[in-house]
């Protein structure tokens, strides 16, 4: 099986090339901001707060954005969001260059970036189906798209850690600004044919949101996965916001140690994405979600217990591998099971559960870590991760039981109740 078969489609290939370059800059900027916040404040809470501010728009706006995106050109929306993100990166670079940098400015610019990203992520996810001509290759395209993201997450922090320790934050921010140039170029070379969705003049975004929510209520197989995504984003996935403190406080590390943890997380996620690219049609994605959630919880417990840097890095790889498997399985299931007319709206709920709830989790976990300490907080998060997996297993068993007994066998003619 060709795990790179989606790259045969020109539009998806251009999308992948542009994203792979831009995401390197994005991760360089992300690691620089995280380290800068921790350097300015020496506070785990502020790490979580800045993450909350930058990702909170996905929580508050994503459902409305999904309704907005349905019925509009996803391609044009992606072009606009990339231009706006490039401008935001330029302003951030300028603020650091003139030495105005402060937690206040990082919060303001992070919020602006979060609003733009909320539109970009929903639009890009909904656009993905138009970049692959044969819809049988859509799961492979989703997995490869995740592979690009996580390859950048592995390489970007490694490069960013070197540049950060050698040249400082300004270089990281400026390179991110430049990285949007290839994205805009590859977008300009695409020839995308989108299926037009007509909307009546009386159809408001609020009505679209309500309609999407009603569809979600009628689809418990999708709704249950979004709930799992939300629970993980609230209690487990925010471990990533603690990595600067894990590197500095638990292992007496510096910028490069932090970049090793980020790269380890990227490596694990990339392995998970490649594994998803090898996915065969017909596999039970919901059970894959359950096992991934269990592995994620157990790996977090082992990360909390780790006494040596090398073992901590290996357990970080395992956590991110499981996280990638869970998130990509949920994404693939929704993309392949949602009705096309509702896809953007349902994906907006997925984005809300993933990127929207994550900042609240970061804020909560940051506050808990201030009180309990990093190690005990990781133990708590790992235990909750295991409970989430067990809870979803119970739900799946009950769901199968209901399906088996929903249509009882017909009684024989001689036996009437």
Automatic annotation (TrEMBL):
Residue ranges of domain Major facilitator superfamily (MFS) profile in the record: 219-417
Keyword Thylakoid: no
InterPro entries hit by this protein: MFS_dom, MFS_trans_sf, TM_effector
Any Pfam family hit: MFS_3
Primary location class: membrane
Transmembrane region(s): 21-38, 44-65, 77-97, 103-122, 170-187, 222-246, 258-277, 289-306, 312-334, 346-365, 377-396
Membrane topology: Multi-pass membrane protein
Keywords: Cell membrane, Membrane, Transmembrane, Transmembrane helix, Transport
Localization terms from the record: Cell membrane
Name of this protein: MFS transporter
Organism, as annotated: Sphingobacterium faecale
């Amino acid at each position: 099986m060709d795990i790179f078969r989606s790259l045969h489609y020109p539009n998806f290939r251009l999308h992948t090339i542009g994203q792979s370059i831009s995401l390197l800059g994005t991760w360089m900027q992300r690691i620089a901001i995280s380290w800068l916040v921790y350097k300015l404040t020496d506070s785990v809470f502020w790490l979580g707060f800045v993450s909350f501010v930058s990702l909170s728009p996905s929580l508050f706006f994503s459902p409305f954005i999904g309704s907005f995106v349905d019925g509009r050109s996803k391609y044009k929306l992606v072009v606009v969001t990339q231009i706006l993100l490039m401008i935001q990166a330029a302003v951030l670079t300028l603020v650091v260059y003139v030495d105005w940098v402060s937690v206040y400015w990082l919060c303001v610019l992070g919020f602006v970036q979060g609003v733009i990203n909320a539109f970009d992520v929903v639009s890009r996810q909904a656009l993905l189906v138009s970049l692959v001509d044969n819809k049988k290759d859509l799961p492979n395209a989703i997995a490869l798209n995740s592979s690009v993201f996580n390859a950048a997450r592995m390489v970007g922090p490694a490069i960013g850690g070197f540049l950060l320790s050698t040249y400082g934050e300004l270089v990281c921010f400026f390179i991110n600004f430049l990285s949007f140039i290839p994205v805009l170029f590859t977008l300009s070379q695409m020839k995308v044919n989108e299926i037009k969705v007509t909307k009546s003049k009386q159809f408001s975004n609020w009505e679209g949101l309500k309609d999407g929510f009603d569809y979600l209520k009628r689809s418990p197989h999708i709704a249950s996965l979004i709930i799992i995504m939300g629970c993980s984003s609230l209690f487990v996935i925010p471990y990533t916001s603690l990595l600067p403190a894990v590197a500095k406080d638990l292992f007496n590390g510096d910028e490069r140690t932090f970049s090793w943890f980020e790269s380890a997380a990227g490596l694990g996620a990339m392995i998970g994405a490649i594994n998803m690219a090898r996915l065969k049609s017909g596999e039970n994605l919901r059970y894959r979600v359950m096992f991934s959630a269990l592995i994620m919880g157990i790996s977090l417990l082992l990360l909390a217990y780790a006494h040596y840097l090398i073992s901590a890095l290996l357990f970080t790889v395992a956590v991110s591998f499981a996280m990638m498997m869970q998130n990509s399985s949920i994404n693939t299931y929704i993309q392949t099971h949602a009705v096309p007319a509702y896809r953007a709206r349902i994906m907006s709920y997925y984005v809300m559960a993933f990127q929207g709830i994550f900042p609240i989790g970061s804020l909560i976990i940051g506050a808990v870590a201030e009180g309990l300490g990093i190690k005990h907080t990781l133990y708590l998060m790992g235990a909750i991760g295991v409970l989430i997996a067990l809870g979803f297993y119970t739900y799946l068993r009950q769901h199968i039981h209901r399906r088996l007994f929903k249509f009882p066998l017909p009684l024989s003619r001689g036996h009437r109740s």
